[in-house]
Amino acid sequence: SLQCGIVGLPNVGKSTLFNAISTGKAEAANYPFCTIEPNVGVVTVPDERLDILTGLVNPQKVIPTIIEFVDIAGLVKGASQGAGLGNKFLANIREVDAIVHVVRCFQDENVVHVEGRVDPVFDKEIIDAELQLKDLESVDKKIQKVEKAARAGDAKAKAELELLKQYKATLEAGKNARSLIVDEEAKQAAIGDLQLLTAKPVLYVANVDEQSMLAGNEYSEKLRETVKQEGAEVIVLCAAIESQISEIEDPEEHEMFLAEYGLKESGLSKLIKASYSLLNLITYFTAGVKEVRAWTIVRGWKAPQAAGVIHSDFEKGFIRAEVIKIADFQQFKNEAGVKEAGKMAVEGKEYVVADGDIMHFRFNV
Ligand code: GDP
Hints:
This protein has about 375 residues and is α/β, with parallel strands linked by helices. The protein folds into 3 domains: about 170 residues, Rossmann fold, CATH 3.40.50; about 70 residues, DNA polymerase, domain 1 (Orthogonal Bundle); about 60 residues, Ubiquitin-like (UB roll) (Roll). The chain contains 14 helices and 12 strands. The strands form 3 sheets. Strands 2-4-1-5-6-7 form a 6-stranded mixed beta sheet, sandwiched between helices. Strands 3-9-8 form a 3-stranded mixed beta sheet. A 3-stranded antiparallel beta sheet has the order 11-10-12.
């Protein structure tokens, strides 16, 4: 499954947030293929549509889709030079699909700030700089490799070198690799193999005080302004409260607790949803009396590829897909009703699966 790495300076609230994630964790038994390590938390992706389907079908089993969060502790100033076990942690980041960057936006005299003051923008820049330095190393190495071929006249290598130099300049200017807008194919050729840390999609968490949970505060606003230029999203939450929320198992009590704080949903739930869309992921459903299940795919995938998430045989032997929209399922109550009303579509190999589709695949074995 997909992994988001939680990064940030020490004492910003990463562990507190990670604990909230691991406490409210998904039942790992349903996901035999996840490797559960101490620094990995598995959470289910909240989805109202799954609840609707469950109500209509009343299945024996409901399986939501999941995301994994990895706690990447120990990033400090100088990490790219190896400080604080820096290189090990940077290697951990290389493996994740997206980055959740936690920034301290709360004042608390009892919690030491590693740099002596609360300044979210500066904090963010410290982490960014470490990641950029590491990326610069990777880009420099690749430049050395490609240069020979480019000098020998290889046109492909020349184009790659050109782009690599642009990345180098970007990083040297203190900007993240993701800020360079380039053609996807050219980008793949030049840096596809490098797994650049600052090219990964990012999402910021402003960890604020309890009092600022709803409206944010001057710190979270400063952060928001800064990352606006990057087109990145900021989730405002209070990690300490999130960890309390995650302790509450009873759904009704959970609702009450949120209402007491004036929250519509938990910050964690917002974070999970935002991570999901950051990665350009969508969900389709399968709905039978035995099991109603949510499946994760990348937006734009066609029916056979989407079927392959269930089983590779589904993709190989794909014949067609029967597709129902949730709204139709809701209106006509069940598959037979939908069929009768002529609302079940039969789609072929070229069908692009839409978010929320209820799919039934037909395939050869
Ligand atoms: P990490 O080093 O980034 O993992 O930070 P921790 O999660 O260990 O948090 C560092 C300290 O800050 C701990 O004492 C937490 O209790 C405290 N802390 C975390 N989140 C908040 C918060 O939202 N408000 C306040 N006041 N303290 C917090």
